[in-house]
Design brief:
Blueprint lengths: L9 H24 L6 H8 L3 H8 L2 H26 L4 H11 L8 H11 L6 H29 L6 H21 L6 H15 L6
């Protein structure tokens, strides 16, 4: 007996598209105005919709901002995990690929970065932002630490601490993202990647030549 394919509900699909349209508009507004002065009217205007539509889909500004941050986090997570899962089984190659991913335009984009930094600036005072960011960040740190541990074991690098390397790489990436945000005209992706590679080569000379 043939089973008919289940077609997506047009109304539900339309709802998801409208929500995404509003989230995209929110990202644009935050990149232009920051979080402090953002209003639902701004978002509605950017999306070319009425403010009532924004209220219909998100009920409040807080809900809209939470969903916007969650969308950004999930978007980054998808790219991170795809790079991690489809790369070489060699830890050194995978770690380098993850570092390179952080500098690609899909991630290291000035508009996206301005929104990320806006949310990070509010993490201490908004528990929901902290919860969303912490959950994903813990996951990435553990993956990178595990890769570093494997490299340390493979190369018998007795004086190298995997946790310290992981923390340093995270800080280096954050610093490069900030540089891209503040100095977009002078930011050089190739030079940024070279600085990361040089750091890894200094620690793991047998793996990065």
């Amino acid at each position: 007996m043939a089973i008919a394919a289940v077609k997506p509900n047009r109304r539900a699909l339309s709802k998801e598209r409208r929500r995404q349209q509003l989230i995209d508009a929110t990202i644009k507004c935050i990149s232009k105005k920051g979080l402090g002065s953002l209003t639902l009217a701004n978002v509605a205007s950017e999306a070319g919709l009425s403010q009532g539509i924004v209220n219909l889909h998100f009920n409040s500004k807080d809900n809209l901002l939470n969903e916007t941050l969650r969308f950004l986090a999930e978007d980054y997570d998808a790219q991170f995990m795809q790079t991690y899962e489809t790369n070489s089984p060699e830890a050194a190659t995978t770690l380098l690929a993850l570092m390179e991913m952080d500098l690609k335009p899909a991630v290291c984009d000035r508009k996206k970065l301005s929104v990320w930094f806006a949310f990070w600036g509010e993490v201490k005072t908004v528990p929901t932002y902290q919860k969303i960011c912490a959950a994903y960040n813990t996951k990435y740190i553990e993956i990178m630490k595990e890769l570093c541990q494997r490299i340390v074991a493979e190369g018998n690098y007795e004086d190298v601490d995997a946790q310290n390397v992981t923390d340093a790489l995270s800080s280096l990436t954050d610093g490069l993202w900030l540089s891209c945000l503040i100095n977009p005209k002078s930011f050089d992706r190739a030079a940024a990647f070279k600085s990361i590679y040089s750091y890894l080569r200094a620690l793991f000379p047998d793996h990065y030549h």
